[in-house]
Structures are given as structure tokens and as C-alpha cells.
# Entry
Amino acid sequence: MSKHELLIIDDEAQIRKLLEITLHTNDFKTKEAVDAKSGLIMAATCHPDLILLDIGLPDESGHVVLRKLREWYTKPIIILSAHSSEDDIVKALDNGANDYLVKPFRTGELLARIRSSLRTTTSEIQKEILKYNDLQIDLTNRIVKKNNDVVKLTSTEYNLLALFVKNEGRVLTHSYLLREVWGPGYLDQLQYLRVFIAQLRKKIETEPNHPEFILTESGVGYRFVIKEK
# Structure
């Protein structure tokens, strides 16, 4: 099997070098762009499996580049940025980023986020039955089991869980979840979402107060993760 090829769009030479060494050491191929213009051209011509995108580019904001990419590019995009404000993170995620890492970042965490983003493919999502340790989800028949016992979920709880599963590893913002599950009229109902997340955790988590599947991204949203046992 060929290696995954990643496109790095970042104007900092030191960051590009660090990423190149880290990724090559871990069996990834890379291509690099130093600004928005060349990054968009390379994305269109090289068709990378994943893009690492800096927000602070010299010729155009990474947020603008992200929106342009999402007009046609359907594969994962991870933002790497020195900006750590919740507004920047939420904006990037709402514009279609799969994940957001603040510089300086730990290379181990970056690699984990990359692998998680690459793992969720269309073919995996289309499997009839998904198994996550002791949790089993039958997307065709809308049946969820925990330790082989059927978990009784309301229609809304199931729709919320299915949305998480189809975006495994990706941070989903509060507004995205509210819009996709309840509709655009519920975008300001954050407490409503928290109540349903708590109910869902009680039903699928072994320890709801210390969840292993549905993790909170403080001030931003939630992430569905899988940790193999």
C-alpha cells in the first residue's frame, strides 16, 4: 500500500522542517507550500490525502483558504495555528476543518490527530455494523448495544450518536451539532445540547463522568474518539 501524502501549507520554515522530519519518520509523504496561492494550486494538482493548514499565511488568511478548499476538497484538513482563541478555533471548525492544533504542539498529539482523521473513510462509514470496544452500532437498523445489551435511545439521541460516529475523531462545534440534529432554529440552545450529551453519555459510557467516547472540547464542542483496548 502506498504511503499517505500530506500537504503542508505554512510560511514558517522551522515548522515545515519539523513536520517534514516527523511525518517522514512515521511513513508519510509530504509536499509543501509557503503561501495561500501555492497551497491552493498544489492541493488541486497533487490531491493530498490530508492538508495541514496554517491560519497566519502571508498573502491570505488561512480561514479564507479553508473556505476555498471546502468548495471542492473533501478529505481531512487540520489547522495548525498560533492563534488559540475560542473564536478562531470555532470559526475554523465551522468552516470545515477536521481538527485544530495550537502551536507549539506535541508531535505525538499531531500524529494521533492525523491518524484519526485518516482512519474515518467513506468505506468505514458505510459499514452496516460498527464496533468500538464494548459498544456496537448498527447504522442500518438503528440498533445500539453496550456489552451485547440493547441500549434504548430516543430518536434524537440516536441521531446525535450517528453524527458523532460519522465524524469520528473530528471536533464538532456546538453550533454544528445543534444545526445538524435540531435545525437552524436551535443554534442558541447550548443548554439543550448539554442535556442530550449527558443523557447519551449515561447510556453508552461505562463511567459517564469520565467518558471514553464523547469528549468535551472546552468552549468549542465535542469529539467522538475511539481508544482501542
Summary: Residues 52 and 144 are 35 Å apart (CA to CA). The chain is about 40% helix and 20% strand. Residues 190-204 form the longest helix (15 residues).
